[in-house]
What does this fold into?
Amino acid sequence: MNVPADDGGLLKPDVVEGTDDEVPYFFFLQFSDRRVLVFPIVLEGLGGRLGGYSGGSELGGGYGGFGGSGLGAYRGESSLGYSILATESLPFNNTVDDLREKMADIDNHVGEETGPKEDVEEIYLPEEISTHSDAMSAFQPLQKPDALCGRDRSAQFAFSQSIHPSGAAVFTGLYLSVKRHFKETKFRRRHLEQENQDLLKSLKEFLESQIQEFLYASSLKKLPNKLRSLEQIHKECSANLRAREVEWDLQMEGLLHIVEEKDKIADDLKQQIVVLDEELMRTETEVFELGRSWKVNLRKKRRTCRKRWKGKGRG
It folds into this structure.
């Protein structure tokens, strides 16, 4: 990696006419071993202050300060492609199933990463440099020639002549700008992810409250129908109760009439029992008298028979 840079520049792809798409710029740094490092970057608002640099021409003009150095109005969000989950407007005529479906989608999104899938370092650093430490070692010769050339003045002079006079300063400033913006982007990414999670939770709570309101409103709409049905049932029950009361009154009158007749029959039977008791008493008295008279007559007949037997015996 510690190879002097021979050339560098600013490239911009062709823009399709009729479109206003934001096209990224590419900084490249060509080393003496013919390797080229490419920096994809999006520049915005630079105007004419950033001069062209092609085929060894100088990167002329001033380049704006990004926190004191770097590339002026530099927007990293476009190259990163950050996106927050869009929360669509929720009409109040959704059904409960629709709301629960939206809540299920939110539950699927909660906890997921909303930032870019690629590593942020791999986006901002050159294509052939995959780690932050490799980038530091790659830019070390540009920042400190002594690290490559040592104390040898001739070697330092040869190194300074091997690169463009303004290339080291330009790419050192570019590297510092990218490094600073990388840290700021990581901070914004964490902040946006936390804010996105909070928004998703708030949306879920809102959907839950909307479901409750929807159920409450639907239950309120059903209450008049239930009240009318209850009133109809009450009227029918009242009519049925009156009809049953009339029927029960008729049945009660019939039962009372039957009871009265039974009471009369019982009174007649009681009178008959009294008469029969009297007859029984008279019959018993007659039987008793007949028994006494029968015994008296029997005694008389016995005496008569005895006398007759005695008279025959004497004769």
User: Anything to note?
Assistant: The two ends are 191 Å apart (CA to CA). The helical segments are 77-80, 96-109, 120-124, 132-143, 146-149, 153-162, 167-314. Residues 5-227 form one domain.
